Amino acid sequence: MQKILSAMRRAIQDYKMIADGDRIFVGLSGGKDSVLLLNALAAYRRFSPERFTLEAVTIDMGLKDTKSEEMAALSANCASLDVPHHIIKTDIAEIIFEARKESNPCSLCAKMRRGALNSAINDLGGGKLALGHNADDVAETMLMSLLYEGRFSCFAPTAYMDKTGVSLIRPFVYIEECDIFSTVKRLELPIVNNPCPMNHVSKREYVKDLIKYISKDIPFAKDRILGAIYHPERTDFDGWKK
To answer: What is the C-alpha separation between 194 and 32, in angstroms, rounded?
Structure first.
């Protein structure tokens, strides 16, 4: 966990993600990234120079194959960390897969889940939203934008959403997925398996595999992509200037 905490702390300090008195809500999907983020922030608050409170929000999309015992283990982990766990019931899955029968549902799903998270945070009194996007997500998002949209673009480590008044932070932007996976496995943290029918068949999954393929011939390819984003003076990625 020490390696995770060190990289997370550096990101928090580089982009001034946390201020004294913040109320932080972790978007807890139950995947490895969000589960480790919750545990890492719970550990970080013990020595953080800024005092902040921590809560977790899980958006229940209504996917029928979600296992209740996994959700119970997720809530138990929150309780062990002294973190309130808010589970928000929605009909997102029904809307996307049954009512609209979306053939490419991932973008709409992400917008609906983010909207549900923002609404939940405001209903609970407001605060910052922490998401578990990691360094691999950073590289994949940039490449997806280039290939599918024809532009160099990537989400920022911090953002303020005008429509909802919710500030967003991504403390894991310096941490690679392999380190998250190994830490979650070593700590035996509870994971909720994703029953979404689009899991592992999305455009993001294709780009993830593409980076792995490129890296066979160019081992430093992902590092170069990340370097261009982390150092915006080389390009011009909005929001990444320290």
So the answer is: 11
126, two tokens: 């407001």
Burial bucket for residue 188 (CB in 10 Å: 0-12, 13-18, 19+): exposed
The interaxial angle of helices 2-14 and 32-44, nearest 10 deg, is: 80
| pLDDT tens-digit readout, 71-94 | 899 999 999 999 999 999 888 878
Which ranges of the chain have pLDDT less than 70?
100-103, 197, 200-201, 235-236
Quick one: pLDDT at residue 236? 66
Look at residue 167 and give its three-state secondary structure.
strand
CA distance 179 to 189: 14
Question: Nearest Cα to 121, choosing from 169, 155, 78, 154?
Answer: 169
- Residues 43 and 5: their CA atoms lie apart, in Å, by 8
List, edge to edge, every strand of the sheet that includes 166-169.
Answer: 85-89, 52-60, 22-27, 128-130, 166-169, 158-161
Q: Which amino acid is at 2?
A: Q
To the nearest 10 degrees (0 to 180), the angle between helices 203-217 and 135-144 is 100
